[in-house]
Amino acid sequence: MNLQEIQDLIKFVSKSGVSEVEIERKDFKIIIKSEQKGKEQIIVQAAIPAAAPAAISAAPVAAAPAAPESVPVNDDAKYITVKSPMIGTFYRSAGPDKDSFVNVGQTIGKGDTLCIIEAMKLFNEIESEVSGKIVKVLVDDASPVEYDQPLFLVDPA
Q1: For the chain, how are helix, strand and coil distributed in percent, rounded to 5?
Q2: What predicted TM-score, i.e. pTM, was given to this entire model?
Q3: From residue 60, how far is each of 33, 48, 53, 115, 130 by CA, in Å?
Q4: Calpha distance 90→3 (Å, rounded)
Q5: What is the largest CA-CA distance in the chain?
């Protein structure tokens, strides 16, 4: 089972309202339990030959990742909303003592790094798919984000 399949399973569990899903195969076991409405805890156990199973536990999540998307905002069609391509923790900079990747009023180009989202101990740089000017940052630094959650408003003009 690859990461995308696991993420799709998480999304299914969050939408279906079931309280627990368990999948076991030869080399791993996945248990997804709903702790609170809209949040799940993922536990992945991988069997390692001649050793005890290793367990990986992720932070509570509510949906699954996909590619970054840019869609018009409902209130004002001139702005583009950059959404989170995954669940994780949103960071505006590469470290606590580093400058933010982007700030309000800054002009960005396609491919510029906007932020980092940490998911399962991996730091994923989120790049812009549009050029324009940052109008608003919609998420606080070091906050958890969900799949498809709006992160930035960009004025493409």
Answers
A1: 10, 45, 45
A2: 0.52
A3: 10, 25, 22, 21, 30
A4: 20
A5: 60
Q: Look up residue 6 and give its DSSP letter.
A: H
**Residue that has been written with the tokens 């940490």 in this structure:** 118
Phi, psi at 63, each rounded to 5°: -160, 180
| CATH 2.40.50.100 boundaries in the chain | 70-155
Nearest in space to 65 (alpha carbons), one of 46, 95, 86? 86
Phi, psi of 11 (to 5 degrees): -60, -45
Q: Is 101:114 a contact under the CB 8 Å cutoff?
A: yes
Single out the residue of 78, 86, 77 nearest to residue 126, CA to CA. 86
> In the CATH scheme, what architecture does the domain 70-155 have?
Beta Barrel (2.40)
Per-residue pLDDT tens digits for 5-33: 777 777 777 777 777 777 777 777 777 77
Q: In the chain, which residue ranges form alpha helices assigned H by DSSP? A: 3-16
Nearest residue to 145 (alpha-carbon basis) of 72, 30, 68, 55: 68
- What gap in Å lies between CA 80 and CA 129, rounded to an integer? 10
pLDDT digits (tens, 9 = 90+) for 93-149: 999 899 999 999 999 999 999 999 999 889 999 999 999 999 999 999 999 999 999
